[in-house]
Specification:
Blueprint (H helix, E strand, L loop, with lengths): L11 H52 L13 E2 L35 E5 L10 E5 L12 H5 L15
Length: 165
């Protein structure tokens, strides 16, 4: 009796097809995950800038003016800059200064930060301000470019500023 022994298992082709399908699904999953992370960081920036805007308006209601520009009028600095920045807002108007999601919690002067300027370096005459994410595209990996910033209607006050920078 010559009975042929039946071998149980998968062929090499079946294994290769299965691995290829798993690799394709993993690649798609990574792309979707990174896109969701990017959207989350952009949403966090919008939320942080809105919080800063609210704190600045509360500051103005209490003092009559906005915090002055740190170096010179129209010159942007990171909001937590050692020379002043928006440290006047903490703790009376907001508990802490927010940091850009890509900056690892460093609101002081990182590669990615929120920037502030006013129309005066004197507290008594600072009547206008501008907030933005750091200007360079490399700073946010293109996540919040000027055109995307302008699309955030809640961040732009057309009476004060019709553009992002």
């Amino acid at each position: 009796m010559s009975a042929q022994k039946r071998v149980l298992g998968f062929t090499l082709i079946e294994l290769m097809v299965s691995i290829a399908i798993i690799a394709i699904l993993a690649a798609v999953g990574i792309v979707v995950y990174s896109t969701a992370q990017k959207s989350g960081r952009v949403s966090k920036r919008v939320q942080d800038l809105n919080s800063l805007k609210t704190a600045l308006e509360l500051y103005k209601s209490a003092t009559g003016n906005y915090p002055p520009a740190v170096t010179s009028a129209g010159n942007f600095v990171c909001i937590g800059a050692a020379a002043g920045g928006l440290t006047a807002l903490v703790p009376n108007y907001m508990p802490i200064l927010p940091a850009d999601p890509l900056d690892g919690g460093n609101a002081v002067n990182g590669t990615n930060c929120y920037e502030y300027t006013a129309n005066s370096t004197t507290a008594a005459t600072a009547t206008e301000y501008k907030l933005r994410t750091k200007a360079t595209l490399a700073a946010t990996n293109g996540e919040m470019t000027s055109s995307q910033f302008v699309q955030q209607a809640s961040l732009i006050d057309p009476a004060k500023d019709g553009e992002a920078t």
